Amino acid sequence: MKNALAAALVAILAVSLFANYYLYRQAGDLGRTVSDLRAQVSALEKARQEQQQQQQQQPASQPPPPAPPQQQEQQPPAQAAPAAPPPGQRPQSSSQTIAAVAVRSIVVSDGFFQRTQYEGVVMNITVDVRDGTGLVLVNTELPAGVDFQTSARTAVKVAQEHVPDVDMSKKDVIFSITPSSSQAGDSDLRAVDGPSAGAAMTVLLISELQSKKLDNSVLITGTIEPDGTIGRVGGVPEKAIAAGEYGAKTFLVPKGEATYTSQSCQERQEGPFVYRSCTSEQKPLSPATEERYGMSVVEVASIDDALRYL
C-alpha cells in the first residue's frame, strides 16, 4: 500500500516538473517574440523619422514661372434680340398658372374615437408647352398617384379638339403642381385628390394654346371627361371655403353640385329623458359664400361653359 502511494506521488511530481518546464519554455519563446516585435517597431519608427528629416532637408520647389500675359480677347459684336414670332405663331416654349381647389383628409381624435374629416386646399398648376414629340408629363410636389397623369392626358386630348390649329403630337406638355403660397410651408398636404383638378388643367392648357390670359379671381373644380364635360367631385362645400379664403370672386363647380347639406335639430324633454331629432336639407351654396366671402358659386357643365368665366 505504501509502495503504491509513493509511486503515485513520484508520478505526480514528475508530471508537475515536466509541465513547469514546458511552461517555462513557452514563456521564453513568448518573451523573445515580444522582443522581436518591439525591435521591428523601433526600426520602423526610426525609418519614418529619417524619412521626415530627409523631406525637411530637401530644398523647397521653385515657384512656377509667371504665365505670359494674355492678349485681351476681342468681344464679339452684340447680337440683336430674337424677333418676336409673327402673329398667330406661338413661341417655342411658354407657361401659365392657374389656381385649383382640391380636398385632403384629416384624421380627428377626441381621445377615444377617430373620425376622418375633409378640408379644402388650393394648389397652383403651371403648364409648360414646348416643341417636342407629344409627351405629357406631371411634376408634383404633393404626394399623388396616377390620377393626375390620367387627368393630364385627358386635358391634352380635349385641348387638341378645342385648338385644332396646334398639332399636340409635336408638343410636349408639362404640368407642375405645387401648394399655393399661403400653404407652401404646410408639410401635411397629402391625400390630395387628383381627378378634381382635371377641369382646371384643361382650361389652363386651352388658354395657353390660345395665348389668352386667365382670370385669377376665378377658381374651378371638377373632373374632365374625354367629350369635354365636367364631371362630379366630392367635398364641394369644403372646397368653396378654401376658395373663399383664397380670395376668389367666382367658384366654378360641376353641374348639380352648388349645394350644401344644412342640418337642423330640435330637442324635447319628457320627464328625465331628452329626445333630439335632426333633419337634413339641401341648400344653395352661393348665398352663403356671397355673404361670407363675397364669392359666387356657379355651376358649369362643360369646358366651353367654364371658358366663358375664365
What's the structural blueprint in terms of helices and strands?
Blueprint: H1 2-57, E1 93-109, E2 114-131, E3 136-140, H2 146-162, E4 171-179, H3 198-209, E5 218-220, E6 223-224, E7 230-231, H4 236-246, E8 250-254, E9 259-270, E10 273-284, H5 286-293, E11 296-300, H6 303-309
Parallel strand pairs: 3-4, 5-8, 8-11
Antiparallel strand pairs: 1-2, 2-4, 6-7, 9-10
Q: Do you know the CATH architecture?
A: 2-Layer Sandwich
State the domain count: 1
Radius of gyration: 41 Å
Count of separate DSSP helical elements: 6
The helical percent reads 25-40%
Provide the structure class. alpha/beta
Q: Assess the beta-strand content as a share of residues.
A: 25-35%
Characterization of this structure:
By secondary structure, the chain is an alpha/beta fold. The protein has a single domain (93-309), classed as Ribosomal Protein S5, domain 2 (2-Layer Sandwich), CATH 3.30.230. The chain has six helices and eleven strands. A four-stranded mixed β-sheet has the order 1-2-4-3. It has a three-stranded parallel β-sheet with strand order 5-8-11, with helices on both faces.
Brief descriptors of the model:
310 residues, alpha/beta, Ribosomal Protein S5, domain 2, 4-stranded mixed β-sheet, 3-stranded parallel β-sheet, 6 helices, 11 strands, elongated
